[in-house]
Structure formats: C-alpha cells, structure tokens
Amino acid sequence: MTQSKLLSWLTDMDISISAGQISNLLIKKNQGFEREKEEICAAGLASSPWQHLDQTSARVAGVNQAINILGNPFYTIYVTTAKKDRRSRTTSLRKWSLTRVCAQSVYLRVVI
C-alpha cells in the first residue's frame, strides 16, 4: 500500500495523521516493525504443519520485481525481491528461517 493510499485510508477512518508522520513511522521508526514481522513469521510457521509459498510479479517504483508470499490460513508474509527465480525463492525461505523450523520436525509443504 502506498503512503498516499495509507494516508487516505487513515483519514477516512477519522484518524488525524500527516503524511510526514506516516513517512517517519515507516522509514525512521521501523525497528519495531521488523521485530513484529519476525514474531508474526515465527508464530505463523508454528501455527500449522504446512506452509504455502507463492511468487508473483509487481512493479515497485517503476521497476519489475517479485513478491514472495509465505503463509497458511492463519498468517501471510510478503517479501519483495529483485528477480522472480528459484534463487529469490530460496533466499526468501532462508530469511524466514525455515531450516530451523524443518529441523524441529514440522512438515513443510512448499508449492513452487
């Protein structure tokens, strides 16, 4: 979601926030978001004996990129990569620490 659409959505919900505040939250104060993303991913991986991985194309700032999507009925995580290929999928899997989860005897079904 773009910052302008996020601003519109929040103001439609009668939340008073400026474009600058949104920018600061997303760019300058994002350490909490990274930690939250890691916690969501860990909880999501533990929530089901299977996971689904998908990949689709998207334009980011006018450049073609790939969106890697990992999830199950309880959560979804998105990671943007420069290319849509096998290497970017395996890189995304490493970012999600799936090797650790697989070592804990969780069955992983990846649809590629």
What would you note in describing this structure?
10% of the residues are buried. With 112 residues, the protein is of the alpha+beta class. The chain has helices at residues 3-12, 19-28, 31-46, 86-95, 98-103, and strands at 52-60, 63-72, 75-81. The model is unreliable at 99-112 (pLDDT under 50). The chain has one domain. A three-stranded antiparallel sheet has the order 1-2-3. The longest helix has 16 residues, at 31-46.
Identify low-pLDDT runs: 99-112
Averaged pLDDT: 76
What's the structural domain tally? Answer: 1
Beta-strand proportion:
15-25%
Strand arrangement in the largest pleated sheet: 1-2-3
Q: Which tags fit this structure?
A:
112 residues; alpha+beta; 46% helix; 23% strand; disordered C terminus
